[in-house]
Specification:
This protein has 290 residues and is of the alpha/beta class. It folds into 2 domains: 128 residues, HAD superfamily/HAD-like (Rossmann fold), CATH 3.40.50; 94 residues, HAD superfamily/HAD-like (Rossmann fold), CATH 3.40.50.1000. 37% of the residues lie in helices and 21% in strands. It has 12 helices and 18 strands. The strands form 5 sheets. Strands 3-18-17-16-4-7-8 form a 7-stranded parallel sheet, sandwiched between helices. Helix 6 crosses helix 7. The longest helix is centred in the middle third of the chain and has 12 residues.
Length: 290
């Protein structure tokens, strides 16, 4: 069965990396070399507490070639400092200012759109991100924003209070729309599942910051001072990483090291610019694009 997708009179198939590398220099308008790599974490750089093979070496080579690297994650409950320490423990160079969490992007969004009083349903990483932006975490009105993220102590009273603030006029924003998360051996409800309960009560649809929304990537571009076409987003999941990159106008590379498979790519309407089997293939990238 032909699993390619038709675009006009042509069929589209995601390019194997080596083919892309060989022909890119001869095609006008094809990105030859980015200035910025936007890297997903779980499933792309590591799996649990184990680095994905070749990731540390590829990231080292990218830095040596002069590319800036930012790590962009939907996970909001951990601070950039904690993430940076984890990456360094896996042999991956990282400073905390190179980690952009959905919590930090959500705080930037709220600060930019007015209102300082935020009722936060979430964990320490979210509160720290909002404090860093000079925003107030409050449990009593008036409330400008109800901010929802992963909260492993979410309760009925928290549901009732958050819903009441939204029904009273507070704006509703969520760090990410993921429905579940794996922590250790446990599969737990994520921010999207908690937000869904609040949306059911209020009838109000939240603003979503994390992937697949483009807002998280746009915040990364703003911080780096790069245009979308100057970056390359690398991730393992078509439904979040590649979807967000496309929405933000950023070229994308699907790494077949995590969630999405080549069969998923062939069935999908989402079209990554590059498909890599793994980081050892990707390591050709910085030295191969001058």
């Amino acid at each position: 069965m032909d699993t390619t997708q038709k675009t006009g009179s042509r069929k589209w198939r995601p390019l194997p990396f080596k083919i892309y590398r060989n022909i890119a220099s001869n095609l006008p308008g094809v990105m030859l070399r980015p200035k910025l790599l936007l890297l997903d974490l779980d499933g792309t750089v590591y799996r649990g507490e184990v680095p994905v093979p070749g990731a540390a070496e590829a990231i080292r080579d990218a830095r040596a070639a002069g590319l800036r690297v930012l790590f962009v994650t939907n996970r909001a409950n951990r601070s950039p400092g904690i993430v940076a320490r984890q990456l360094r423990s896996l042999g991956i160079e990282c400073r905390k200012d190179e980690v952009i969490t959905s919590a930090a992007a959500t705080a930037s969004y709220c600060a930019a759109h007015g209102g300082r009083r935020c009722h936060i349903v979430g964990e320490r990483g979210v509160r720290e991100a909002f404090a860093a932006q000079g925003l107030l975490s409050v449990d009593d009105g008036p409330v400008d924003w109800v901010v929802v993220s992963l909260d492993r102590r979410f309760t009925y009273p928290k549901l009732a209070k958050a819903s009441a603030f939204i029904l009273g006029g507070a704006r509703f924003v969520i760090t990410n729309s993921d429905q579940r998360i794996t922590i250790g051996d446990d599969i737990l409800p994520e921010a999207g599942a908690i937000a869904a309960s609040i949306q059911t009560v209020t009838g109000v649809e939240p603003v979503v910051i994390g992937k697949p929304s483009p807002t998280l990537f746009r915040e990364a571009l703003r911080m780096a001072g790069c245009a979308p076409e100057e970056a390359l987003a690398v991730g393992d999941y078509l439904g979040t990483d590649i979807a967000a990159a496309k929405a933000a106008g950023i070229p994308s590379c699907l790494m077949l090291t995590g969630v999405s498979t080549r069969a998923d790519v062939e069935r999908s309407t989402l079209r990554p610019d590059i498909v890599c089997e793994g980081w050892r293939e990707f390591r050709l990238f910085p030295s191969g694009f001058a």
